[in-house]
Amino acid sequence: MRARKPARSMFLAAALGWVAACSSPVDEPGSTVPGKCQADAPVITAQKTDVLFVIDNSGSMAEEQAGIATELPAFLAELRQGGGVAQDFRVGVITTSVYQRAIVNNRETNREYPEESGRLRPVPTASGEPSAERFIEGSDPALLEKFRRVVVQGTSGSGQEAPFEAVRLAVASSLATTPLAQGGNGGFLRDGARLLVVVVTDEEDCSSRQRPPPVALTDDTSRDICSEEAAKLDSVDDYFQLFQGLRDSKGGAREVLWATIGPVGLTDKSVGVVKDTTPQGIFVRNVECPTSYGPGFRHRAMAERFNSNRENLDSICKPSYRDTLITIASLAAISQSIEVMNLPDPRLAQVRVTRADGTVQTCSVAGGDLRYDASGEERPARIFFLGDCLRRQDDQGIEVKVFCAG
Q1: What is the mean predicted confidence (pLDDT) over 264-269?
Q2: Count of C-beta atoms within a 10 Å radius of residue 184
Q3: Architecture of domain 48-333
């Protein structure tokens, strides 16, 4: 009489789809399934995120920059939580200044901002002098102080804000690989790291790859030319597709997250043009956003491309950015994929997620709640979470197990 199979073997048989007792994945040619349990458990590597803040440094942004700097402790604290996975992040800052084309009194002027235009801004010293440092590691004991200083970019930048184009230049042009010593951003973006972009602005995006840009500002404050002539600009979809197609130096797809604190409505993130009549003239702003200087049609559209629920979008007109920054950090802290090493065969992977209430949810490739991407020549393997096993911000931890044949 045959002995009953142990429960573990039954699970393994189901997971691997065995159809006959005499067939074993261990014996298959080229099999990576171990014949006995490994001594080394799979290792979850720290989640790497390169954080890029895009700061509007036009003449109306002094209070908003100060407001962001004030609430950075909450942003960093939330980002470090990471849902049970160690966080490895760095932060850098660029501005929205790339160019400014204006027609005033029938006279056209064109100005370029070569020292900005997607270049990482120098991190100021405690005395306010620019340093050679262009980004700050998350492990730097002075991270908060340096971060607060570098997000305050002043108000002498372009009044024709082009954050989409500034990001393109920063991460998708030759600037991205040009060494820091030569004025580029080389070394900021890491292989295997996600990119989080946070745009902070009170005006509409006016981005184009053309030089000079096809849209020109005027002295008529009752009009928002960049919104009216948006069809002349590079489309939101063009920029979105470009950012989605980013790859690292090893050919791996780069996960990009996007968040905006911009000119949208306070209560429902709506967009629309409002004209206010004042003693100084008629000024255009966004609906339900009294301190904006234009509507945020393109900003809302870009945020929706990355997150259809617009959790990554909030109003620049809020009196405090604390809750907004916490929300952005919570979205960024939780990746729906993790890198793993020492995983011999994806069919054997079982991931146990400890939820906030202490319950443990078991997920597997065989069960359909995980997807596995094999490693490349120089890339680690990656597990993606699906369905009910999607990670949550308040998860307490993640553990990867391997079932084995002996």
Answers
A1: 98
A2: 20
A3: 3-Layer(aba) Sandwich (3.40)
| C-alpha closest to that of 206 among 105, 278, 100, 307 | 100
Instruction: Kindly tell me the burial class for residue 18, based on how many C-beta atoms sit within 10 Å of its own C-beta (0-12, 13-18, 19 or more).
Output: middle
Q: What is the pLDDT of residues 171-191, one digit of tens each?
A: 999 999 999 999 999 999 999
pLDDT digits (tens, 9 = 90+) for 229-247: 999 999 999 999 999 888 8
> What residues does 109 pair with on adjacent strands?
102
Task: Spell out the SS3 assignment of the chain.
Answer: CCCCCCHHHHHHHHHHCCCCCCCCHHHCCCCCCCCCCCCCCCEECCEEEEEEEEECCCCCCHHHHHHHHHCHHHHHHHHHHHHHCCEEEEEEEEECCCEEEEEECCEEEEEECCCCCCCCCCCECCCCCECCCCCEECCCCCHHHHHHHHHCCCCCCCCCCCHHHHHHHHHHCHHHCCEHHHCCCECCCCCCCEEEEEEECCCCCCCCCCCCCCCCECCCCCCCHHHHCHHHCCCHHHHHHHHHCCECCCCCECCEEEEEEECCCCCCCCCCEEEEEECCEEEEEECCECCCCCCCHHHHHHHHHHCCCCCCEEECCCCCCHHHHHHHHHHHHCCCEEEEECCCCHHHEEEEEECCCCCEEEEECCCCCEEEECCCCCCCEEEEECHHHCCCCCCCEEEEEECCCC
Strands 313-315 and 256-262: parallel
For the chain, which residues make up each domain, given as ranges? 48-333, 336-406
Cα–Cα distance for residue pair 60/262, rounded to 1 Å: 13
- Mean pLDDT, the chain, rounded, equals 87
* Residue 404: pLDDT band with limits 50, 70, 90: low
pLDDT tens sequence across 31-52: 544 444 444 556 667 889 999 9
Model confidence band, residue 11 (pLDDT cutoffs 50, 70, 90): very low
Q: What is the pLDDT of residue 290?
A: 97
Q: How many CB atoms lie within 10 A of CB 366?
A: 18
pLDDT at 28: 56
